[in-house]
Amino acid sequence: MKTSWRSASLVVSAVAVAALTTACGSETAPPASSQNVGATAAAGDYGNSAGLGSGYDAGAAGQEGGASPSAAAGASAGELAVATNEELGELLTDSAGMTLYRFDKDTADPPKSNCDGDCASKWPPVPADDATAGKDVDSSVLGSVTRSDGTKQLTIDGWPAYRYAKDAKAGDVNGQEVGGTWYALAPDGKKAQGGSGGGAAGGGGAEAADLPGLSTRKDPKLGEIVIDKNGHTVYRFMKDTQWPMSTKCTGECLDKWPVVAPVDAKDTKGIDLQGSTPNRGYVVFDRPDGIKQQSIDCVPIYTFAGDKKPGDTNGQGVGGTWFAVRPDGKPVGASEK
């Protein structure tokens, strides 16, 4: 029985490697670790626009100093209120007027926080114990989740709520879109993004929160391009390679060019998956830094921290190496070597 089980396992492993190899265009099976090959690019390759960071603990550009008293870990929430921001519309605050945020790497159903350690120092969880619904806040959306340390964190329609340590005063929204994963909370638990959400059909209309993980939109200058679930333009780096799949955007580069996290093929619309099983070229890249990144046509894909709202294409042509992505993974306005 042991021999039979081992033989079957080897067959399954070989099939999996062969499928991935075929999908990404290699004629021979690479070593198991070859997907993790990558080199750091020179700083000049990243472009000149300042970025905000790509992950759990990225800070807002230009913000200095420590946490405000209200943002300190364990500070009570008190009576929640609704404030109006000129750009973001209605958003949720604590009793001191400090903006509350949600994190894309968390889940709402079931509620779960994935921000611990250093992340929780920069994004203090909002305690659930004394939180109450104030005027214009629907008490039915308030809930709680037990964190890994046993404490209770406030949830809004299932989404764990946080403050941002670099918000210094009431009304600050310095945490908005940090790393492409942090967003101010609207009173109903959705992302506060005002009226600028990009629709899959053409740069307006649908809220970004309603978009699939990856979809497309018609840009007036670039044509049909790929966008992420927040309506932000997706890019590729011409110094990356398809197979062996590798990246030359690591370290500080990721502050300006956050990776697109894995997206289930079922959570896409308009992306050319090339009709095979597994979907040819639509694979997850295990980066050398341990981050998992989505690819299209075996090309790693990114967003740009310099794109402030859905529909922006500020990353197009940066450094002569960054270009928006067509539904088939090809770069817009650049030729592949």
Automatic annotation (TrEMBL):
One of its GO terms (biological process) is alkane catabolic process. Pfam families: Lipoprotein_15. It comes from the Bacteria. The keyword Signal applies. Residues 109-135, 191-217, 309-337 are annotated as: Disordered. Keywords: Signal. Residues 1-18 form the signal peptide. Residues 192-206 have a biased composition (Gly residues). PROSITE patterns: PROKAR_LIPOPROTEIN. Transmembrane segments: none annotated. PANTHER family: BLL4220 PROTEIN. This is Lipoprotein. It comes from Streptomyces ferrugineus.
